[in-house]
Design goal:
By secondary structure, the chain is mainly α. Helices cover about 95% and strands about 0% of the residues.
Length: about 160
């Protein structure tokens, strides 16, 4: 019985060793579970942080896009307004120039009429003066011919030119 007693005595040691090993394994399992939980938590936290950062970046990008669209729309509006102003200014200037051209044409027509009238008056006055001079010449010739000196000398007067 001695070997059996020894086996019985060895059993508590083996039992104790097995229980200790089981306890160590349970502790290891528990520690591994805790590590896995920590890793899972850290991974979820990492994913949530990454998602939050991505959402923040998306929000910022959307705000940037909106601001750029607004700025582009403002630039389009300003450009359109500048074009409209330039067209209006050009049209005003064209109208003013047309009015000025019309005034100059009217002035030119008035001056042309005045000059033509002046020329006609001068021509008429010159013709009248020439006519008067011809009449004066004829009267002086007649007077000259009727004087007693011209009759005594027997000189004949030259023929008169008509015209």
């Amino acid at each position: 019985m001695a070997p059996r007693a020894k086996a019985i005595d060895d059993e508590p040691d083996e039992l104790h060793l097995a229980q200790t090993e089981i306890r160590h394994l349970k502790n290891t399992v528990s520690a591994l579970r805790e590590q896995m939980e920590n890793l899972r938590y850290e991974r979820e936290e990492s994913v949530q942080n990454a998602v939050a950062l991505s959402n923040d970046e998306i929000i910022q990008l959307k705000a940037t896009v909106t601001a750029l669209r607004d700025e582009l729309e403002n630039l389009r509006f300003e450009k359109e307004e500048a074009v409209q102003n330039a067209i209006a200014t050009g049209n005003d200037e064209i109208s003013q120039l047309k009015e000025m051209v019309q005034q100059l044409r009217d002035n030119l027509e008035t001056l042309t009429g005045q000059y033509e009238e002046t020329i006609q008056n001068n021509d008429r006055a010159a013709r009248d003066e020439v006519s008067q001079l011809h009449e004066t010449i004829a009267a002086l010739r007649d007077e000259l011919e009727s004087t007693p000196d011209s009759q005594k000398s027997g000189k004949k007067r030259p023929a008169r030119k008509k015209g």
